[in-house]
Amino acid sequence: MFLILIAQVVLDFGYFRNFVEPVLLKKRPELSACVTCHEHGTPPLQPLAAGATGWSEEQSRKNFAIWKQFVVPGAPEKSKMLLHPLAKSAGGDKFHAGGRHFASKSDEDYRTLAEWVRGAKSPGGAGVVRVLQSNSAGDSIHIIDPAKNEVVGRIDGIEVPHGLVISPDGTRIYVTDEASRTLDVVEWRSLRVLKRIPLSGRPNNVDVRPDGSKVYVGIREAPGAVDVIDAGSMKNGKTVAVKGEIHNVYVTPDGKFLVAGSIAASTISVIDTTADTLAWTLTLSAGIRPMAFTKNADGSTKEIIVQLSNYHGLAVVDFASRKEVRRVEFPDLPGHERETEGLQGSPSHGLAISPDGKTVWATSKYYDAVFALSLPELKVLKAVPVGLHPDWLTIPPDGKSLYVAVAGDDETVVVDTASMKVVKRIRVGAVPKRVTSGVLR
After folding, report:
1. Domains in the chain, ordered, with CATH?
2. Which of 70, 247, 287, 328 shows the smallest number of beta carbons within 10 Å?
3. pTM summary value
4. Which runs of E-coded beta strand occur in 126-276?
């Protein structure tokens, strides 16, 4: 005679707070968010405080205590919380007063709820790594899980999203909104826009200090400026005048400087991030496009790697001497015809340095490819074809994959950095350009 012991599934509060509650807060097309009805329905959800986009921990524990009564631990297929909002054709209940939120059990939000019921634990402080792909001709940002290389969510309602960056604590996503001329602050847990902060002009790129205290927005309107946003108050605290309307802004890895580039003025402006005053400028021979940074052993900035208008390659600026010291032109690819339509004066536009600092990746719109170059030698290692009009690049923290925004194909293309081969093509929105990655909590 054998005694079979079955472990009892214990529902995790941390997972409920970090992943289930955002589903209950989420607004879906043509449907009300769950919280809208359940603030006064059954089972109840705690009422949101005025202006709040989520619950306090105390409120979340009350939500958890009630909602866990409407599931069967270990059995999503028997849990009312999952059956009510599921489409009848997928096995849902006969009727749900709040409508059918999940067309199938493969819906990402349904799967999140099901994982909780099966006993999934919260990763806690570790957070989750995500790739964020903005779509420059649309009003959405696609959220990609790099472990699966699949789209697992979207941020909607930001028309012509341009720059985007994740806050250092992983709780917010800052997005420049060209249509409204605002910096939109998105809360990660709910994917809601917390606030639209008015800017001094039409924005382009955005970056944030490593301590999270300030957000810098490039203003692409003459005469040129960088807006300094106080992250705590979510207010535009200062506008720093610079030479030329600004295309890109980058906080140096050590956080001490903000580097802004102007296409029109061919000028790099360097701002001291303590005083938020202009420290120095450098004018090059062509418009300033994307930039990246190499570091000294102490973490300070060694070089600025710069892409230039109408140049198929890279320029290198020594940060200490404030001088251009080198250029590297990319080779033509035998057997490949140059793509010359729609380049917008930028045959090479998009840079990413590997986390180990040994490789820099750069796009080639001429050849619909990405080039890998060794650091510090800047020797071309390989050209990898990726698709029509590759634009921005990002490498998640583990360094295993390069994500390429392929604007002409409406795809985010994944390149394995070890084999230097394309391993996945992910369909996203209209004309994807800016792409970033990081840990979200």
Report:
1. 13-117 (no CATH), 124-440 (2.130.10.10)
2. 70
3. 0.77
4. 128-135, 140-145, 150-156, 161-166, 172-177, 182-187, 192-198, 203-208, 214-219, 225-230, 235-241, 248-251, 257-262, 267-272
